[in-house]
């Protein structure tokens, strides 16, 4: 009895020792990953320009090689796409009665594709997206809203609409402009942009799903961070901040609720939605569950909320009231009010020019500032891509070192 008890006690000690060693290894690995991520955050152009450019070039070569290998694996698909492209080019170049239909189709597809592309740019890149709603879609909705109230119509002549907005000829005094009228005018642009943002969320999902199916470690700092946070929550819950709690909340909501959790995260402005895509891919949530909820949330629910907000703010009486409030600011009110009044008056004059007539260009401080803001944001977007690719190559090097260490 004593020998049996001693044997069981030894076995229990061995199991406990193995468990402690395993936990110690996991903690060491988490600490190592944390240190590597801190080191990786320093690889940016303004801190380590030579290293960042070197890693960017190396990562570009790696991505080009991987893309070429994938194309070779999908030879039939590539050949079919090339054949369809050649047939479309021949139809486009050949003269005939079909050219009118092709012209209409081309104009529609280019307009839709423009907004889908801007939507993709807004969400793709794991946090490095270009804020195209603020730069393009928001101003477009605002311009349509101001024009609708000034012209008392949304039947703008095409052309020049959508490239330029001109009030239609004829009597429009009997028209009634409501918020729903303006929403119907910009619905396609908004839905296409929202669909683009949903498409831009697919890379994190596919990346996490492929890593889970292949049994490989997920190549994502975001997922490593959430694993660390979950571990920290169990050991030191009082040390977790608000942002960390928000990340854990998104992770748990998507994992436990599924479709409606994804829909809730996609339906509101959510900078942590990349984490939802990674979580869905890691836990093998079906593609159409993830993409369907994301598409409905971003292209329909979220876009209508954003449209309501922009149209409400830029309604005729709200804009005039805002300009009056700016003028009421002590000391600086009148000087601040002048460029806004000048800009609005210039826009109203442009709306009443006839289509095809030359509109004299007038320099305006607000237009100049907006152009410079666009340039700065585009440059920052390009720099973010460069830094992100350099950091991804650093991640490749770290993974290679981990494999050598394990072997």
Architecture overview:
77% of the residues lie in helices and 0% in strands. It has 16 helices and no strands.
Number of helices in the DSSP assignment: 16
Biggest sheet character: none
Question: Could you say which overall geometry the principal axes of the C-alpha atoms support?
Answer: globular
Helical content stands at over 70%
Structural class: mainly alpha
Instruction: Please count the beta strands (DSSP E, at least 2 residues each).
Output: 0
Mean pLDDT across all amino acids: 76
Helix-strand string: HHHHHHHHHHHHHHHH
- From the alpha carbons, calculate the radius of gyration and give it in angstroms: 28 Å
Instruction: Give the distance, in angstroms, between the N- and C-terminal Cα atoms.
Output: 43 Å
Given as residue ranges, the uncertain stretches (5+ residues, pLDDT < 50) are none
Strand content: under 5%
Short description:
The chain has 407 residues and is mainly alpha-helical.
Descriptive labels:
single chain, 16 helices, mainly alpha, 407 residues
Q: What secondary-structure arrangement, pairings included, does this model have?
A:
Layout: H1 2-41, H2 49-73, H3 75-93, H4 99-123, H5 132-151, H6 179-185, H7 187-200, H8 202-214, H9 221-235, H10 242-257, H11 259-266, H12 273-282, H13 287-313, H14 316-327, H15 333-351, H16 365-406
């Amino acid at each position: 009895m004593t020998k049996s008890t001693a044997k069981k006690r030894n076995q229990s000690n061995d199991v406990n020792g193995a468990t402690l060693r395993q936990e110690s290894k996991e903690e060491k690995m988490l600490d190592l990953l944390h240190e590597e991520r801190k080191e990786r955050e320093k690889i940016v152009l303004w801190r380590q320009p030579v290293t960042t450019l070197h890693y960017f070039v190396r990562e570009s070569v790696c991505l080009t090689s991987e893309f070429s290998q994938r194309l070779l694996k999908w030879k039939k698909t590539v050949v079919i796409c090339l054949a369809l492209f050649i047939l479309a080019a021949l139809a486009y170049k050949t003269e005939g009665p079909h050219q009118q239909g092709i012209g209409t189709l081309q104009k529609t597809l280019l307009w839709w594709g423009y907004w889908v592309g801007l939507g993709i740019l807004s969400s793709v890149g794991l946090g490095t997206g270009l804020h195209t709603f603020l730069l393009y879609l928001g101003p477009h909705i605002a311009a349509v809203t101001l024009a609708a109230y000034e012209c008392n119509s949304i039947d703008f002549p095409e052309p020049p609409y959508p490239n330029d907005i001109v009030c239609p000829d004829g009597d429009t005094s009997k028209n009634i402009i409501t918020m729903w009228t303006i929403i119907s005018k910009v619905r396609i642009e908004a839905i296409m942009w929202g669909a683009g943002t949903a498409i831009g969320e697919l890379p994190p999902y596919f990346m996490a799903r492929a890593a889970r199916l292949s049994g490989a470690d997920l190549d994502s700092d975001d997922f490593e961070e959430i694993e660390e946070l979950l571990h920290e929550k169990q050991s030191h819950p009082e040390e977790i901040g608000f942002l960390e709690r928000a990340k854990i909340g998104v992770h748990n909501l998507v994992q436990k609720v599924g479709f409606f959790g994804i829909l809730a995260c996609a339906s509101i402005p959510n900078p942590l939605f990349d984490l939802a895509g990674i979580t869905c891919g890691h836990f093998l949530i079906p593609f159409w569950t993830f993409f369907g909820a994301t598409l409905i949330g971003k292209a329909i629910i979220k876009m209508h909320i954003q449209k309501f907000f922009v149209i409400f703010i830029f309604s005729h009486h709200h804009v005039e009231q805002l300009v009056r409030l700016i003028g009421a600011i002590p000391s600086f009110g009148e000087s601040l009010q002048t460029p806004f009044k000048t800009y609005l008056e210039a826009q109203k004059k442009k709306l009443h020019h006839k289509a095809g007539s030359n509109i004299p260009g007038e320099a305006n401080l607000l237009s100049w500032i907006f152009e410079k803001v666009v340039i700065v944001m585009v440059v920052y977007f390009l720099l973010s891509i460069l830094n992100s690719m350099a950091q991804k190559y650093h991640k490749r090097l770290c993974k290679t070192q981990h494999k050598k260490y394990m072997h």
